[in-house]
Amino acid sequence: MAYRLRILTPAEARTFSRMTFPAYRSRLGNGTLAVGAYSGEEHIGLALISPAADRLSAELLSLYVDFSHRLRGLGSLLLGHADTTLARANVPIIHTTWSETLPGMDNFKGVLAKSGWAEPHKRMFVLRGDMDGDFGREVREKYSKYREPTNLPRKYSLTFWSDMTEADRAFILSKESDPDWFEPCANPFREESGIEPAVSLLLRKDGEIAGWLTVHRTAPDTLRYTDVFIRADLKRAGAVSIAMVTHAFWLHLAEGTPRLTMAVVMRNEPLVRMYINRMSCARLSWTWGSKKEYG
What domains can you pick out in the chain, each with its CATH number? Predict the structure, then answer.
């Protein structure tokens, strides 16, 4: 069967909205590269890519092929068309991430492999819990000692993010790109307007900021634990992060939103081990990542 592929105009891209995730539909035709596939005049596939502002990289946001046209190499054709466009624009690398819980992930990984992408690697550990159900009951039964914010290693304390002073803000901003602190992409103020004040926390050691937990509302019934950060050079960081996050669970219970999601970077081994070994009632999964370099 002959397929027709083309770079979509913004107006054309918006007609493919059913072929990407709801979170990305507003980005169709808005700074993204959209490669559409047609069978005759029928829309049958879409690769949606977001180039970085500096054009030093790009992110594959989604790849979709209608069910009746799958297993015919169309996914590889879409990625190949995108490769050609990015290479001509001198974009050196493209990367992507995905959740292992989404349907069709084995096929997606197969398409990436055939298209010359690197071997996938585990990236983030994802926890989902129901505060009105088994997860909330497990927090109450197993982690009652963290209900109060005082159960931290000596010299550490917790305050609410909303109690931050201008001096605190300036201190955090001054640490951007410091090797023991955070990269610009992890700036905790990047989604500041959506921070949930009842649950988000600042961690202090001897009164000075040493980390934070930022939480955002992603739906009326769901809070997302966005950043769990502790300064890299601190000892006992694992025990401190567990205490901070678990105290936040208690604050979440008091606040009343029924659901939570949280992603933890793979290198935060204490939190990952805690969730795998001790939180049997949570829904646990991994996100994966891969990349392809041009040249």
Answer: 4-117 (3.40.630.30), 125-289 (3.40.630.30)
